[in-house]
Amino acid sequence: MTQTTPSSTMSFVEIINGQPLERSAIPDLPLPQFQNAILDAVQDGHRVAALFGTPHQDPAKLNVYAVLADDRRSRFHAAGTSVSVDGFPSLTPRCPQAHLFEREIAEQYGVKPLGHPWLKPVRFHRSYRAGTDAWNRTATDVVQAGVMEFYQITGGQVHEVAVGPIHAGIIEPGHFRFQCDGETILHLEISLGYQHRGVERAMQGGPDHRSLHYAETLAGDTTIGHGCAYAHMLESLSHCRISPRAAAIRGIALELERLANHVGDLGALSGDVGFLPTASFCGRIRGDFLNMTAALCGSRFGRGLVRIGGVGFDVETTLAADLLKRLDVAEQESRGAITLLWETSSVMARFEGIGTVPKDTAAELGMVGPAARACGLDMDSRRDHPSGIYRFSHVPVSTWRGGDVFARAYVRWLEIQRSIQFVRDQLKTLPSGELRSAVAALQPNAFAVTMQEAWRGEVCHIALTDAQGRFERYKIVDPSFHNWMGVAMAVRGKQISDFPLCNKSFSLSYCGHDL
Amino acid sequence: MIKSLITRFQQGYRTIGYPDPGATEPVMPARFRGRPVFDSSKCPADCRQCVDACPTQAITIADGKIKLDLGRCLFCDDCARACPEQAITHSRDYRLTVRQASDLIVNSDQEIKLAAALDGKLRKLYGRSLQLRQVSAGGCNGCESDVNVLTTIGWDLSRFGISFVASPRHADGLLITGPVTENMKQALKIAYDALPDPKIVIAVGACALSGGPYINHREVNNGAANIVPVDLFIPGCPPHPMTILDGLLRLLGKIEAGKS
């Protein structure tokens, strides 16, 4: 494999995970050059990690920044441009990965990507630039989730099925609109935004007392993932180096979070195909992993564990020994419960060949995390963009082929085994060091990207600070933002009765998407 | 088939005994942060460190006494870490549920007025069978997950006659999580109206009680009680499953009102 920088991104600045840059070092490119560089880079196998707007000094313009991930070389490429508030040519027809990002820019700043094939609201809130709206809604028009034009197919046998926002189970709200021909799904449109709490807007002007709590509740099941990305951001911008011990404890917590969610998801998948033994066992074993996190920090979801500059709690020798014992039991019980799935033909018949996403589709959509690895995409930001303990201790990347429900389940099982081994190794060889290092004021006029491989995939945070070192813009990309379109593609042409199973096999976050 | 049976045997019987008579009391993790306990006598004059550190303005000081709004509290420890005199500690007591919003505000030296059971007709109707419809209205999936966990074999909520149903038409009450986002306000109202009378509403978690970390965001409605009448308030961020179970059992009169 050649290790040269593709010429396409030569105009972009190269940075690594958590490296702060002066904002003046971010190239300000003319729009055509900016867009062509993105297209060429994506052609070369880079991914769009983020594409977002920020206000420009000139009210007739909007700043747009792009962060591209070059996974093979463990680098990010960043650049900015400015576009007219009257609109800019959309990248989406030539780069599907940009699709949701451009809709987000349109919604947040009322600036239209012209020629966007699917320009609809993302979270249903009013534009941050007062008086502007990409859909020409006036101040008196209702802006409400789900109020938009849905794609519709008409014809003799075609019918429409609408599900949500409130679903049958104890899960978050979202709306799913199916166009069906009999039992076959011709098209699924997913319309979210019901969970929108205004986090990115509230982060502006920070950090403040609430910022870490926003990070911890961006997606409550990914408290450690988002918490680590946020803390890493503050540490980067204040040139704070956390101790090896704090880094190891964060790694343990991040893997316990992965374990709890993966085991829980396998149980839920088992329940969705009516195989109750594994559903019951895994539902309980998930709790054992959550309780290990609670032993670390008092909270089953890891609230309070990640602190700026390190961690809030130590793992003493007795606690490490206790956790090792509990890990052995949980490993044995997980193995018994989960391998039962692969040996039960009625389960395999419902997992295999259902909800398939082809590898090239996954790449084209910019999918991430276990859902992408289940399509055979060899990517994992713990290896590709390592931070903290992952720079020293490596977790082998688990991929599978096929991109179906089985592959998404099996990748989780592979990751469960890797994570248990990682946690065990860390607990046995905890390095020394301060729990928390001192944090100074944030670097003013700076730009940084932090990325963390949470259980659903990469969590990406980007901050731009102002002259006082406050957040002028804080961009958050939850892995679900990259993957929801994958769910729609997985069910296309399939039976509508398979939708719950397909949806669970992705197990995406609604609030992480809605922010 | 044989493997299923062997695994079933290996996994064993795992439902907690609590609250059966003679069963052991549940033990909370050593670092569990239950109800914050304030020792106002240690407070230096004019000290406001805890008030200023609190991310949700849950703490107020009046006449030298600290007052805490359990509805706003994230149980996050920021106050205790800020306190120069170690006057704030967290007890491991998971019992936090109350019936009135005003009971969420507690003085430092005052017991929590824990939830009383439903009375009269409602208790007769629902005491032995309560069907709930869960609505997440901006919840982060923390509260949702730990409500869901009560239905697993470890807790087996249905042994108390409580279960979660798929439609408000089949339900006796709503269990609401999240700060009630603007975008979920209408759906929540529709779900509430679809419940047959008499109906009860249970709010779970700091968001549903007050807005939690999102208090006063223009995108949220600062909790369920601003949209529908609430009968039971369960604090926490998220509440531990034991806190939720304790609250539900108190409401149904399965734990004596006087027992703490």
Write up what this structure looks like:
The complex is a heterodimer of chains A (515) and B (260). By secondary structure, chain A is α+β, with helices and mostly antiparallel strands. Chain A has helices spanning 31-43, 99-109, 199-203, 211-217, 223-237, 244-272, 276-297, 317-342, 345-351, 359-365, 369-373, 381-384, 405-428, 479-491, 499-506, 510-514; strands at residues 13-15, 21-22, 28-29, 47-55, 61-70, 75-84, 88-89, 113-114, 158-163, 175-181, 184-191, 306-307, 310-311, 446-454, 457-465, 471-477. Chain A folds into two domains: 7-145, 2-Layer Sandwich (Beta Polymerase, domain 2); 206-441, Orthogonal Bundle (Cytochrome-c3 Hydrogenase, chain B). In chain A, 39% of the residues lie in helices and 17% in strands. In chain A, the strands form five sheets. In chain A, strands 1, 3, 4, 5 and 6 form a five-stranded mixed beta sheet that branches. A four-stranded antiparallel beta sheet of chain A has the order 2-14-15-16. Chain A has a three-stranded antiparallel beta sheet with strand order 9-10-11. The termini of chain B are far apart. Chain B has helices spanning 2-11, 49-53, 78-82, 120-126, 142-148, 182-194, 206-210, 241-251; strands at residues 36-38, 59-62, 65-69, 88-90, 105-107, 130-136, 162-164, 173-177, 200-204, 232-234. With 260 residues, chain B is an alpha/beta fold. The relative contact order of chain B is 0.16. Chain B has a five-stranded parallel beta sheet with strand order 7-6-8-9-10. Chain B has a three-stranded antiparallel beta sheet with strand order 2-3-5, with no helix packed on it. The longest helix of chain B is centred in the last third of the chain and has 13 residues, at 182-194. Chain B has two domains: 36-94, Alpha-Beta Plaits, CATH 3.30.70.20; 120-251, Rossmann fold, CATH 3.40.50.12280. Chains A and B meet through helix 4, helix 7 and helix 8 of A and helix 1, strand 6, helix 5 and helix 6 of B.
